[in-house]
Structures are given as C-alpha cells and as structure tokens.
Amino acid sequence: xxxxxxxxxxxxxxxxxxxVVVRTPAAADRSALLILExxxxxxxxxxxxxxxDVLFAADATPLHSADDLTDALRRAxxxxxxxxxxxxxxxxxxxxxxFARPAASTARAA
Length: 110
Prior knowledge:
This protein is mainly beta. It has 2 helices and 7 strands. A hairpin with a 2-residue loop joins strand 6 (81-88) and strand 7.
C-alpha cells in the first residue's frame, strides 16, 4: 500500500491505496486504485470517501497508479477541487473533493 502525502504545493487527499485491476461486464479489465484507509479529518474523509472505494479517474484522467493520482492532485492545487470517478458497492459515481487552499506565500503588487 502507498500513502499519498503531499509536497508544499500538492493538496493532500489523505488515503492509503493500492493498484488493482477491476473486471467489468460491460468493458475490458480496467486499472484502478483501491482505497485501503481514509485518514480522519482529511479531504477524502470530508468528501465522504470510504475504504473499499475504487478510484477510476480524477478530473476525467484515468488512474492506473498512485503516481497518476499524485499528478492529478498537483493539477488540482490551483483550483482546490478534484472530481473523482469512483466505484462503491458495484455502482459508479462522481465525487467532488475540495482542499483547503494555502495562503499565498508572497503578496503580488497590482
């Protein structure tokens, strides 16, 4: 299992996960990420993600590895939001995760 932390500029989702291959009746096998743990008080917890959820895509970009999710988190740093395509109990749904946006480290003159 990999734990996704953060660098200074990257939002932290707060999940432990592992890559999986999901077999679906309507499509070929798909790579995805299985959530093993959700950290209390994390962005994932606030959004309602649960252990056992399967992440297929982040902002419409397929997730094949933890690196793919880390890349999506970096891209989400500017907006403070990330839409996840996930599977739960055999159903697909989209879930919006919102991150606290850090205050700007330097002020810009207008």
